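Figure 3 (text version): C-alpha cells given as input.
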C-alpha cells in the first residue's frame, strides 16, 4: 500500500488492515469526485501561475494525481506536465520524498526550489528535503506554520517577475521570517 493517504489512514485508524484501507481509499476517491463543485481557488493563484513559465513550477500534493487534475481543472488551472501525487510516492508528507521528486522534475536542487505550502506536514516535508518554504496562512493559523522560512497571509501578496537573465524574482510582504 503506497501513498500519503494510506499512511494517514493507518496513523488514525491503526486497527484497519490493508484491504480495509484500500476500500477506504476507493470511498475517498468517489467522495472526491463528488466534491469538485465545492473547489475554490485561492486569491492570487491565477496571477501567480500566469507569471511563471510552465516549466518552472510543479505540484507536490498529498492527493492522488487524478484528484489533483480534477481539482485544478475545476478552477481553470492547467496542471503541470509532470507532478507528484500522493499515490505516486512510497512515503507521504512529512517525509521529503515528494519534494525531492518535485525538484528532480524541475531539474533543480531542492535548495533552488521555493515551496509554497499551507500545511504543517507539507512544511516539514519541504524543510526535510532542504527546500526553502513560503507558507500561506490560508488553511491553518499562523501559529501552526512557524517552521516555514516565511509566512504570508495570501497568495495575492506574492509578486513574480523574470529579469533579462531569465532569473525569477519573487517578492512578498512576509508576516514572519524565521531565518
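Below: residues designed for each position.
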Amino acid at each position: 500500500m503506497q501513498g500519503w493517504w494510506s499512511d494517514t489512514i493507518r496513523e488514525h485508524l491503526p486497527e484497519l488492515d490493508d484491504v480495509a484501507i484500500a476500500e477506504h481509499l476507493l470511498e475517498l476517491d468517489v467522495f472526491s469526485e463528488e466534491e469538485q463543485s465545492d473547489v475554490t481557488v485561492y486569491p492570487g493563484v491565477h496571477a501567480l501561475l500566469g507569471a511563471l513559465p510552465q516549466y518552472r513550477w510543479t505540484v507536490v500534493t498529498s492527493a492522488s494525481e487524478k484528484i489533483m487534475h480534477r481539482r485544478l481543472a475545476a478552477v481553470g488551472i492547467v496542471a503541470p506536465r509532470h507532478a507528484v501525487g500522493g499515490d505516486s510516492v512510497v512515503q507521504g508528507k512529512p517525509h521529503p520524498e515528494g519534494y525531492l521528486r518535485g525538484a528532480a522534475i524541475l531539474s533543480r536542487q531542492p535548495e533552488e526550489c521555493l515551496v509554497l505550502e499551507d500545511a504543517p506536514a507539507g512544511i516539514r516535508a519541504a524543510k526535510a528535503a532542504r527546500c526553502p518554504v513560503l507558507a500561506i496562512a490560508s488553511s491553518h493559523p499562523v501559529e501552526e506554520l512557524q517552521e516555514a522560512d516565511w509566512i504570508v497571509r495570501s497568495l495575492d501578496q506574492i509578486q513574480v517577475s523574470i529579469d533579462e537573465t531569465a532569473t525569477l524574482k519573487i517578492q512578498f510582504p512576509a508576516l514572519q521570517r524565521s531565518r
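The longest strand covers residues 133-136.
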